[in-house]
Amino acid sequence: MSWEQAWLKYQAVKGYLDEAYFKEVYTLEEGKIIENALAELRLATNKMFGAAIERVNHLPTKGIHLSLVSKECLAKEGFQLEEKNGLIAIMANTQIGLLYGVYELLRRVACKNKMALLSLTRVPDKELRMLNHWDNIDGSIERGYSGDSFFFENKQIVVNERTRDYARLLASVGINATVINNVNVKQEATEFITNTYFESLKKLVELFDSYGIKLFLSLNYAACMELGGLKSADPLDETVIAWWHERMKLVYQELPTLGGFLVKADSEGRPGPFTYGRNQADGANMLAKAIAPYNGIIIWRCFVYNCQQDWRDRTIDRARAAYDYFYELDGAFLDNVILQIKNGPLDFQVREPFMPLFGKLKKTNHIMEVQIAQEYTGQQIDLCYLIPWFKELLDSRTYCGEENDTIKDLLKGKCCNHFGRGIAAVANTGNSENWTGNDLAAANFYGFGRLAWDSELTSEEIAKEWICQTFPDEEEVLDTVSRLLLMSWNTYEKYTAPLGIGFMVTPHYHYGPNIDGYEYSRWGTYHRADHFGIGVDRTKKGTGYASLYYPPLSQMYENVDTCPDELLLFFHHVSYNHILQNKNTVIQHIYDTHFEGVKDVERMIQMWKGLEHKLPSKEFHRVEACFHKQLDNAKEWCDQINSYFYRKSAINDKRGRKIY
Amino acid sequence: MSWEQAWLKYQAVKGYLDEAYFKEVYTLEEGKIIENALAELRLATNKMFGAAIERVNHLPTKGIHLSLVSKECLAKEGFQLEEKNGLIAIMANTQIGLLYGVYELLRRVACKNKMALLSLTRVPDKELRMLNHWDNIDGSIERGYSGDSFFFENKQIVVNERTRDYARLLASVGINATVINNVNVKQEATEFITNTYFESLKKLVELFDSYGIKLFLSLNYAACMELGGLKSADPLDETVIAWWHERMKLVYQELPTLGGFLVKADSEGRPGPFTYGRNQADGANMLAKAIAPYNGIIIWRCFVYNCQQDWRDRTIDRARAAYDYFYELDGAFLDNVILQIKNGPLDFQVREPFMPLFGKLKKTNHIMEVQIAQEYTGQQIDLCYLIPWFKELLDSRTYCGEENDTIKDLLKGKCCNHFGRGIAAVANTGNSENWTGNDLAAANFYGFGRLAWDSELTSEEIAKEWICQTFPDEEEVLDTVSRLLLMSWNTYEKYTAPLGIGFMVTPHYHYGPNIDGYEYSRWGTYHRADHFGIGVDRTKKGTGYASLYYPPLSQMYENVDTCPDELLLFFHHVSYNHILQNKNTVIQHIYDTHFEGVKDVERMIQMWKGLEHKLPSKEFHRVEACFHKQLDNAKEWCDQINSYFYRKSAINDKRGRKIY
């Protein structure tokens, strides 16, 4: 299957005045990373200017100079770009810093920035910037909306030119780690830690290393039973411990630069330490000890909850689960364990409060997990540019009592005793020709990487960068696509589950509405709507979840009058006639926003149509087809939500619009 | 995989006084059918009495005599049993009649009937008594609840000893036709009409013929395109017509006794004549002409409806579809076409009115289709003995203006100009060791056959016959199992969708409750519940469906005060406070019946437990496990239905029971 180049297409830059800088490049460095940097420069200049840059063996009078320096401020991955008298110097402490510098430079060309007097320093503000792929060994992708896996085919690991292009895309935005297989490790994927797969994994590691990307693998916690034939996976059992030590020794003999492992344990049917009456730290530490000698890391997911809940029982709250399991274990994890915490307490909804563990874990390494695979946010059919949502999360104050108390401070390691370690995203790629199904969904892939590198970039800046590199250079294109991206999250929120209540999606598939789809189920995600009202009481009178936050957040959420509208139904069960802070009643807000959401999508289609003759036909029509499906979806959501609540509440829409 | 013998286990008959009749058998007849009859006698006598009957070459003084006679009253398949002076004479016009006589005789032994002065004549009252298997060539079964297919394995047709036992089960209850493959003909099953499968089909036909069973196959209407490479399947296209004539000639050269074909066209994504602007008669007749030279029959399903309906549109009514498509075509079908009409207008719900085509088709061959695969009636986990339901259907008067106007008269060919031809059931078998998953579900398999043969048998009689042959001979076993069977349909109806509204099941799977599961879907099966009431208006003010019946049924259904309670919500949208004929309100009836349904199941479990030491342990525990699952299911239905309607109506249960 052929594939495109996403934002690395290096479109011809017409009328660019600074082309002359890109004739010659000079460096003393050698090695695979430098080769990749130079190859990228050649490819880009050839495509942008019609002539590839030449590596010269002397410092040119006009050109580019890559050099290693020793500047503490640049740390391991940062770089400096300086233009002076015709020469652009790219400086870094490491070769990977130089590669990042090259990508920054090329991005600036694509966006037609001037080179004269260029002077900037860029250092990633988070240590771990990671993707999690949920690709299965059989080639399918769990929650994949863009074709099948390009990592796996016929139960084999594929390493080819597309894998290289994948690595280039990651490096170009600064992503420095990736997990290629599904956290639900099944079938032959359990055998990645055996001889069967070492050969192909070696090739992959070698390739990724040359782009500064650490390979991680998802691990089957029960591998000691499934592969080793042990009768137990008890983390305190000596035979279990011995098996893992031996196994990890073998793994690291073969793959010495492997980053480590991601583990989903005791969750949604996966095995884990709970089976043996042990806690999550027992499980994580046992594995961590086994790989500590090799500088390996265990990334342990906090998405642990009871998925056999009784819908009748209002005392159990899935939202509390991660907090309840992990807060009490703060400090119990080894240094080479990193907890991976979902952004919110449920599961990647269009709106959730942030997970209250953030700011509470003061002695445990952790990263935040977001999802750019649009499982609940339109599945890469509906446009939903998630960067503004991630920005809100990053900018959220935790009130943990330190000066820098936002989540982004935390993930940068600037508060909570430096235990924040970075950010991971569930990836949205597949083997479709444009990588992400909907072309516009690539903005989330790109944007996640950029935001992972630099929390201070704005959603608008990121959108613009991506558009410049992706679409023809026209003011109207830049403007329209940017507006489409920036309105899309809000639009999606309008026509789906209202006021923070979440879910209401088709069970299993998670696309399209099914208001009661999870209401009488075992999954712990309820809306509790009846004739009088709707919402989950998470105050002290309910599940007590609101109290898990630091004040003043705990008070703000606890109080129905101060709880933000967009999270009202997440925290409170209220009557349909409850007056929101926006002065509307809950029911009228539901009607209004749903009708608005459909109108928004209609407007988006009109906006997109205006670009028909300014965009390549293939891309234009691919996206247009998505928009039409999105409109159907929005209408279905609107009509089902409105009918559902009208039929239940018997309260008329005060504007008398059509409800079924 | 090993398998059991269902009701042909021929348990030892202790203390039976008439054993002496079963020492010798005499007949002049030869041939495969007679061989099978004699083999059955040998097997049965050996198992029941410990000594196999012997075939003797003279008329014995005490024993059995099989002989062909020529009596108009016995028709093709009937038989006579006469005991006189120690000799039991089995007489029939055909060998298959003799085989049926043998099975009747053995059934009477299993039930310990006396032989002295035995004198009876049995003639099947319906011509076609058929099973439809929805088995796929890959071995799976659509709506199969008892393992995989025993007809297909690895894309091959299997003919082995189990196939023979299957044929014996059919013949023992008088089933004389079967369709072995799914009406949704996909993959290699399309190739059954090619050389690829002729060899194995020949073996199957030969086996079935020797038990009086006509083999039919489901046909892919688009085979002329998929196999023949034609560009169209237009039934009026000369190349299409020619292709089918040629193809059928080949088929019947190889399989001269093949019964014919079953066709699902223009339904749920299947191809059909509508694609070419033709009607259903055009499609059926084209195929019928092609097989008429070989006495082949086309059975054409009437389950044709729009499965892309908009839930917002209340003018379309799926219940009308079969009537609207086929009523106007009455008389347009060739003589060797038989329409197969589902018992009700929706889809095998626990309660539906009968399909109004019955009694309206006066110039078209037709049979009724019922479903013993318990797709919507508990999936062979929940006990649901369907014979009482089928009896109600058969006994229903159509008011077609003739003296004998019930559906059973119709299917017997006794009214509507003899165009009624019989009955078919979607089968409930699979390759599990006991054939039907839940042992008690075999009562539906057995019962369908018996009822197909004789509409006048009562549900109780059939139950008793089946129990005698299946379980140890103990009064308490007979009594308890009989009571369990007879209460089960009513119990299932109590805890599932109320008052004839239907569906409310988990989409796709069709097991367990999902009240809104089909409410906002494209399938045309809605309940229209809102705060005020529930039900579908099928009166003249609504979809007009009620008027499709003859008076007085049309008036009875049209009028909310005369419409039977159990079908009220099928025909009328009423308020929750509407008073039923049983004096209860609709909402209180919903609450009451659902709590009752759970109590019934609890009672059933107690009843079953009382048999623990009277039944073989394996069977006891297999059924017990089903009952426990049924109780979970009943509780889930009860709580979800009651919570749903309480939350929507805000009307309290007047008995104050727990609703969530």
Automatic annotation (TrEMBL), chains A, B:
<dbReference type="GO" id="GO:0046559">
    <property type="term" value="F:alpha-glucuronidase activity"/>
</dbReference>
<keyword id="KW-0378">Hydrolase</keyword>
<feature type="domain" description="Alpha glucuronidase N-terminal">
    <location>
        <begin position="6"/>
        <end position="105"/>
    </location>
</feature>
<comment type="subunit">
    <text>Homodimer.</text>
</comment>
<keyword id="KW-0624">Polysaccharide degradation</keyword>
<comment type="similarity">
    <text>Belongs to the glycosyl hydrolase 67 family.</text>
</comment>
<dbReference type="Pfam" id="PF07477">
    <property type="entry name" value="Glyco_hydro_67C"/>
</dbReference>
<dbReference type="InterPro" id="IPR011099">
    <property type="entry name" value="Glyco_hydro_67_C"/>
</dbReference>
<dbReference type="InterPro" id="IPR011100">
    <property type="entry name" value="Glyco_hydro_67_cat"/>
</dbReference>
<dbReference type="Pfam" id="PF03648">
    <property type="entry name" value="Glyco_hydro_67N"/>
</dbReference>
<dbReference type="InterPro" id="IPR011395">
    <property type="entry name" value="Glyco_hydro_67_aGlcAse"/>
</dbReference>
<dbReference type="InterPro" id="IPR029018">
    <property type="entry name" value="Hex-like_dom2"/>
</dbReference>
<dbReference type="GO" id="GO:0005576">
    <property type="term" value="C:extracellular region"/>
</dbReference>
<keyword id="KW-0326">Glycosidase</keyword>
<feature type="domain" description="Glycosyl hydrolase family 67 C-terminal">
    <location>
        <begin position="436"/>
        <end position="657"/>
    </location>
</feature>
<feature type="domain" description="Glycosyl hydrolase family 67 catalytic">
    <location>
        <begin position="111"/>
        <end position="435"/>
    </location>
</feature>
<protein>
    <recommendedName>
        <fullName>Xylan alpha-1,2-glucuronidase</fullName>
        <ecNumber>3.2.1.131</ecNumber>
    </recommendedName>
</protein>
<feature type="active site" description="Proton donor">
    <location>
        <position position="268"/>
    </location>
</feature>
<dbReference type="InterPro" id="IPR005154">
    <property type="entry name" value="Glyco_hydro_67_aGlcAse_N"/>
</dbReference>
<feature type="active site" description="Proton acceptor">
    <location>
        <position position="375"/>
    </location>
</feature>
<keyword id="KW-0858">Xylan degradation</keyword>
<dbReference type="GO" id="GO:0033939">
    <property type="term" value="F:xylan alpha-1,2-glucuronosidase activity"/>
</dbReference>
<keyword id="KW-0119">Carbohydrate metabolism</keyword>
<dbReference type="InterPro" id="IPR017853">
    <property type="entry name" value="GH"/>
</dbReference>
<dbReference type="InterPro" id="IPR037054">
    <property type="entry name" value="A-glucoronidase_C_sf"/>
</dbReference>
<feature type="active site" description="Proton acceptor">
    <location>
        <position position="347"/>
    </location>
</feature>
<dbReference type="GO" id="GO:0045493">
    <property type="term" value="P:xylan catabolic process"/>
</dbReference>
<dbReference type="Pfam" id="PF07488">
    <property type="entry name" value="Glyco_hydro_67M"/>
</dbReference>
